[in-house]
Amino acid sequence: MKRTIFTVILTLAAMGMSAQATYFDTYQKMVDKQDSLGLQKLIPEWETKEGVSGDTYAAWFNYYLLKAAHATLQLTDKEPSGESFSFKDKNGKVVGYITGGDSYVGSSVDSALTKIEEGIQRFPDRLDLSFGKIHLLLSNFDYDAALKELHRVLDRSIINGNKWQWTNNEATPSEGQQFLRDCMQDYFSQLYDAQKNDAAMALTEDVLHHYPNSIYFLNDKVGLLAAANDFKQALEVGLKAHEIDPSDDIITINIAYSYQQLGDKKNAILYYQMLTNSKDEDIKASAKEALKTLKK
């Protein structure tokens, strides 16, 4: 299995290259070849020629990850987003999936964390550095430490107004706040897919503490509460989100479902009825099916 080293840095490192193009090109070729000895020689030369930068911190971090990476197999009962193998019970029902991944072990992990933390302290608005650290922590299932790092990113987003820097100190690939939101949503999905609902809720609450009107994370909170069968609180959060954005179909269907689970047919019908004109055909069909059941 080919190892994958911190995807965000490596796949986006090529964006906006200028004077450092030669070093980036050579660096990426060495990573593809898993040439740690070559990287060990290249990065100091890069620093001598161009100076220490957020990019060289990222490079050292990936060098240490390359040394520490070990391919692993992971078992899950939810279908992964990437490649996987499924296995079935005697009736042919899929009951689980096996997917590949990386874990990181040995002293190089400590070196990677030390180097990336130094980079974050020196370049606190380089979002890719923080995301590199979070990637490592999540890969090693250190959820508490990952949540602390995510909290630090959220705190920084208020200080810098989401004016983040990325590779070559350029802006993030999309507008700063939107990019942060999308990445936080990806981290939520990672935690949820790993069945770490407590950690997913902690992240959701943290985002909402910083951005209380985030429809994305209000929706996530509703989903987690519903999964825990706490439909009363799910409804309260859903109604708050509906006031912020009444056009959000996901919020509306969650409200309708919560009312349905709480035995309030009148309000369930009211909110399902709102969805019969949805532009999403699946949501529209689900709403109509629910109305048939409720009106029996």
Task: Characterise this structure.
The chain has helices at 7-12, 21-32, 36-50, 54-68, 107-122, 127-139, 143-159, 176-193, 197-210, 215-227, 231-244, 249-261, 265-274, 281-294; strands spanning 69-76, 85-88, 94-104. It is mainly α and 296 residues long. A hairpin with a 5-residue loop joins strand 2 and strand 3. The longest helix has 18 residues, at 176-193. It is elongated, with a radius of gyration of 23 Å. 35% of the residues are buried. Mean pLDDT is 85; it is low at 1-20.
Question: What is the string of helix and strand elements?
Answer: HHHHEEEHHHHHHHHHH
User: What average pLDDT do the residues reach?
Assistant: 85
Rough outline: elongated
**Alpha-beta content class:** mainly alpha
Major pleated sheet: 3 strands, antiparallel
Strand content: 5-15%
Widest β-sheet, arrangement of strands: 1-3-2
Identify the quaternary structure here.
Answer: single chain
Output the number of helix runs: 14
Query: Distance between termini?
Result: 54 Å
Total number of β-strand segments?
3
Rg calc: 23 Å
Estimate percent helicity. Answer: 55-70%
What keyword list fits this structure?
disordered N terminus, mainly alpha, 64% helix, 296 residues, elongated
